[in-house]
Amino acid sequence: MPLTIAEGEPIDAMLVIEYYDRSKESLRESRIYFLNIIVNMLRDTRQKTLYEEMLYNSAYFDQATKLANRNMLIKRLEQIIHDKKESGEIAVVVIELANLRIIKDTFGHNIGEQVMVKSATILENILEGCCYIARLNEGKFAIILPNVENTGQIEEHANKILASFSDPISTDTKIEALFVVICIGISVYPDHGRDADTLLKNADLASYQAKNINQKIVFYTEQLEDNIAENTLFINRLFKSLQNDEFFLEFQPQISCVTGKTVGIEALLRWTSDGNKRVPPDRFIPILEQTGLIYDVGLWVLEQTLQEHNRLMAKGFPPLRVSVNLSVVQFQGEEFIPDFARIIEKSGVDPKYIELEITESLFSKDPEDVLNKIYQLKDLGVNIAIDDFGKGYSSLNRLKLVPFDRLKIDKEIIDYIDLEIKEAPLTEVIILLGRTFRAGIIAEGVETKEQADFLGSIDCDEMQGYYFSRPLSSKALEEFLKRE
Ligand code: C2E
Ligand code: CA
Ligand code: CA
């Protein structure tokens, strides 16, 4: 029997989750039901809502493995450091499944996910609750060893982890069992950092080094100074990159679930340093942000993207919506709005074809100023999309104030969709939330046909991901559009 909630009546989140679990009602009924909940939530924001509870879970726990995620790990590590009394050390161990990407590219996304989940179980079993474990991202886990006596003990743990991956992992397909190659990076409190962020960053750097030099276990030590020196080198190079034309853009198509055609493109920044060596955006964009260089680079990205829009139109393609990513540092620039307005006006592009992607983390500093600027951007006539939605903690109270036009559902949530039982309550709630706000919905990181089919069946508007296309050069994009 459907559960009805009267207007303004408080909502018991647990009841709702239980109801959803038990419910064998048709999808349509559950949809109407959730819509009711959302409308109610918007009326009574004092309630801890189902939505916020679900997002709390997705903000602090990894959906695929049910392990804690990075946010939770940081919280826990801060607590452990804070409570630390006796002597002894705390070790942070980052474990990377070094060949996961290759497994995914060779055998497909689903097999890759199975290998990842089984690896998580191996780690959990071997650690037997003695330490705290979390999944950081695609193929990376982290473990906190809260009370270790010495380096020898840490190494013992690391070796035990290595040994547990010496047998191949079987998947439920005909493919033979797969070996997982792991690399381990370790940092130790207090020598390698006194706060959670630094310890995790240094253990991560050590794992990065382990992978690069093909070594199984690397402790964060002076040998990593090279890497830090690389950062300094990057900073110097990045300062000259705009003049030296070392930046370029790739564009990833965004596909309508209704027509199957490209309706938009997202511009993604690329950098080749040192001749032709590509540096991943995750590596150089934080440096651009720290140095403030992202301000000028961001203006350049907008300018180039609008040129691409005009170029494609001149070639006879229908007008495509173009999206660019914004960083919080850009919002802090005094001339941010006039600079954007000038570039848009000069390009002659109709602002309705321009979309600016922001993340909710933008609101962590001076939210009033940020919101004010978002309204000024809206006044220019452009669209606002909320990127990585569902990845961090979302507050419905705040979301209500933001004039957004689209929600981009984060890849992590898309990965969590259980394609076998065809259930995706969180994705469906986000879609309904979008409807309630009269915003469009786009799913990110769609890698398989099954994901695409399922998203189409639950009324998602658009999709973006490797299944349709990787980010493309301008020339390759043109070819892609011609083939449609
Ligand atoms: P994002 O905005 O979330 O961009 C989507 C990222 O997902 C891109 O990574 C894209 O290549 C990747 N991606 C797309 N489809 C798939 C898929 O099916 N599977 C997987 N595994 N990945 C997929 P990329 O290009 O490495 O960019 C990383 C991040 O760098 C972006 O994340 C964005 O936050 C930032 N970024 C990129 N360009 C700019 C820029 O011009 N300005 C600013 N401020 N940030 C940018
Ligand atoms: Ca984006
Ligand atoms: Ca994103």
What does this structure look like?
The chain is of the alpha/beta class. It has three domains: 1-60; 70-220, 2-Layer Sandwich (Alpha-Beta Plaits); 244-482, EAL domain (TIM Barrel), CATH 3.20.20.450. It contains 19 helices and 15 strands. It has helices at 13-22, 27-43, 50-60, 70-83, 100-107, 109-127, 151-164, 196-212, 225-241, 281-290, 294-314, 328-332, 336-347, 367-379, 396-399, 411-416, 425-436, 449-457, 474-482; strands spanning 68-69, 89-97, 132-137, 140-148, 182-189, 217-219, 247-256, 262-273, 277-279, 321-325, 354-358, 383-389, 406-409, 440-443, 462-463. An eight-stranded mixed β-barrel has the order 7-8-10-11-12-13-14-15, surrounded by six helices. Strands 1-3-4-2-5-6 form a six-stranded mixed beta sheet, with helices on both faces. Helix 2 crosses helix 17 (425-436) and helix 11 (294-314) packs parallel to helix 13 (336-347). The two termini are 46 Å apart. Mean pLDDT is 86; it is low at 1-28. It binds ligand C2E and calcium ion (2 copies). The site of ligand C2E has 22 residues, from strand 8, helix 10, helix 11, strand 10 and strand 12.
Bound compounds, each kind once, are: ligand C2E, calcium ion
Number of helices: 19
Task: Summarize model confidence as the mean pLDDT.
Answer: 86
Instruction: Calculate Rg over CA atoms.
Output: 24 Å
Strand neighbour order, sheet with most strands? 7-8-10-11-12-13-14-15
Structural class: alpha/beta
Total beta strand runs:
15
Q: The CATH topology of the largest domain is what?
A: TIM Barrel
- Report, as a whole number of angstroms, the end-to-end distance: 46 Å
